[in-house]
Amino acid sequence: MAGKSVLQRIDWLSVFIYFALLLIGWINIYSSTFTEADQSIFDFGTLHGKQLFFIGVSFLTIIVVLALEASFYERFSSLLYLISMLLLLGLFVFGKTIAGATSWYDLGFFNLQPSELAKVATALALAKYLSDIQTDIKRQKDQLYAFLVVLIPAILIIPQPDPGSALVFFAMVFVIFREGLPIYYLGLVLLAIVIFICTLIFGPTWVSIIITLTLILVLLLKKKSFRVPVTPMIVAAVVAIVFSLSVNFVFNKVFEQRHRDRFSLWLRLEKDPAKLEKIRKTIGYNTYQSEKAIESGGIFGKGFLEGTRTKGDFVPEQHTDYIFSTVGEEWGFLGTSSVVLLFTFLLLRLVYISERQKNPFGRMYGYGVISILFIHYFINIGMVIGLLPTIGIPLPFFSYGGSGLLFFTILLFIMLKLDANRMKEGI
Question: How far apart are CA 18 and CA 13, in angstroms?
Answer without folding.
Answer: 9
